[in-house]
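In this section we walk through a basic example: taking a raw amino acid sequence and producing a predicted 3D structure, encoded as discrete structure tokens. The instruction is simple. Fold the sequence below.
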Amino acid sequence: MRKYFFYSMIFLFLAVTSCKEDDEDQCCDPTNPECANYDPCLGKMETTADFAILQPYAQVGPNAGTFFEDSVTFGATMRFVAKDTAADSYRWILGVDTIYDEIEVTRSTFSLPEGSYPVSLQVTKDPDSLCFPLDDGMDEKTKFFTKINGCDAAIWGEYRGILESNINDSLNIRLLVSSSPNTIQPCNPQSPIGYVFGLNLLGENDTIRLEGNGATNTRYSFHLENNTSDNTGEAVLVIETGLIEISYSLEGETEKFNGIKL
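The resulting token sequence is shown next.
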């Protein structure tokens, strides 16, 4: 890695001192060996078994083809995608299953009990000794995904913040899951069906039932029960900071709430 850093510094020095992009007669293409700023390591990747854990926003409907990187699920068909797509071999280990030579694998988690599950990937490829002199052409990575109950998703809860239409006053907004479609009742962890309500979304002590277009541990896309295109919204939680943004158009009001989880 030190040698790669040394080479990169040389290329950077040559690029800064020898290449002027405003000079039409000068070659300034780092992918062209004849140019002064040529970098033979540009775009190349050291052997890595790193991979992304993805889950769909919804199983059906318009958001079924939208995936987010999230390792916490309450039931979905998960995707595991290798970040190095140019390796010579791939070996995935998911529980008792071993899958070979696939850049991407999928698994349903609906029937899994709650808990944490390992996923391992091993890759090999012919290493680039010039750019990565310490690369032996092999790498292995293990990550975990967690199955939780839908009642325990991080997106549900109470938030304090402000509406863009009234930045001088703060308020509390709640996103709750109910076991009843008509009133707010405790979420039933034994039932696969839950009903989401938004409390005080309009800042008027209102209670609005929100029909889901998609849900993950940290996101919820919704519309009102009448399903008109003018009554939609989305809540996105940054779990590391507890910050949330809820953008929505409800009952003729277009609004955005920015807050933090309490």
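Looking at the output, two observations stand out. Residues 1-43 form one domain. The CA atoms of residues 1 and 132 lie 6 Å apart. In the next section we compare this with other chains.
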